[in-house]
């Protein structure tokens, strides 16, 4: 896990909330009092629309962090993520004439569903552009809410270009996923809920893409006078905020690669960026291994299904448990995950946790050779999931067989025990 800016250790944590936080920034930046008023107005707008999602105490995370940890379950929100908050507020504030022209959005899935549902609730037509390869369940859910789904490009940024062009050509109102004050206000209502459910919160961990959610939460907490540190969490393979904060302006990343499609955003939004750099304590990154391991633990220990982006806050807490003052609230931002991706992520998480092994072992090509190998594995309680033989190959001696094994283990210590037993028995082990 890495942090933006200088030393982010517990004894030297950044805190951008100096002075009277209700005063406008000296450079004419956001007025926190106005932001809070906007968020409170959004809260009134969302009554009866967005759910007040549960906050679950997590003992298994608390044991690691050394104090109370709570999971804010936006994966249980309507449409499966926090996005309905901002989308509904944005569309509700349009004029009747604007709503009559319809709305258009671009999204890999969660914003798409939020816009589609909000548009249906407000009797407005919605067109949504998705990147090619967007998760099928997210596409189907968006269609089920009544939106017209179209595909363009392979990234959210490419889909955004198509959506903006469509808006210019048709007059439809473009609903940006994060770069608008109304979106920030809607997402900020989550911060008000956090304060109501955990008034003494000291740290809030928020998964971060374009920045609408983390900015809204930070503005809500700071505006209400909370001293809690709000920390954004990005996937290391799609982390635009750390270099942007270092440069003092939004800076696009040249390349993105992450399973967390919900926070794979190439450049911070200008509106949330100004809030983030003033009232967010820092933005840190987590690896793909941490994301998959956290998703697995949330499913096993918390009985909560989340998407990779939704697991980012928990990944940060697991990576550096001593860096965050409890009580900690980790926001589970969404639960919309493709079942095919879920299978791959769970396997990846089991590997990261040392509970899954894929290896190759050379055994004599003679009766009983494979049985002897399997007997050694049985002695250490290794569960064999798959076995494949190969009798020919580069570097394979005549009379030997290459055996590819997939094993389920109980963890890293058990994994080391298996390797020690095989090597002690004279087997050459290679990882595949």
Automatic annotation (TrEMBL):
Family matches, as PROSITE patterns: ACT (PS51671)
Keyword entries, A-Z: Lyase, Pyridoxal phosphate
Matches recorded under SUPFAM superfamilies: ACT-like, Tryptophan synthase beta subunit-like PLP-dependent enzymes
Top EC group: lyase
Residues of the signal peptide: none
ACT domain residues: 358-432
Reactions catalysed according to its record: L-threonine = 2-oxobutanoate + NH4(+)
Cofactor(s) for this UniProt protein: pyridoxal 5'-phosphate
Composition bias type Basic and acidic residues, residue spans: 14-25
Region (Disordered): 1-34
UniProt EC number: 4.3.1.19
MF GO annotations: L-serine ammonia-lyase activity; threonine deaminase activity
GO BP annotation list: isoleucine biosynthetic process; L-serine catabolic process; L-threonine catabolic process
Family of this protein: Belongs to the serine/threonine dehydratase family.
Function according to Swiss-Prot or TrEMBL: Catalyzes the anaerobic formation of alpha-ketobutyrate and ammonia from threonine in a two-step reaction. The first step involved a dehydration of threonine and a production of enamine intermediates (aminocrotonate), which tautomerizes to its imine form (iminobutyrate). Both intermediates are unstable and short-lived. The second step is the nonenzymatic hydrolysis of the enamine/imine intermediates to form 2-ketobutyrate and free ammonia. In the low water environment of the cell, the second step is accelerated by RidA.
Protein name: threonine ammonia-lyase
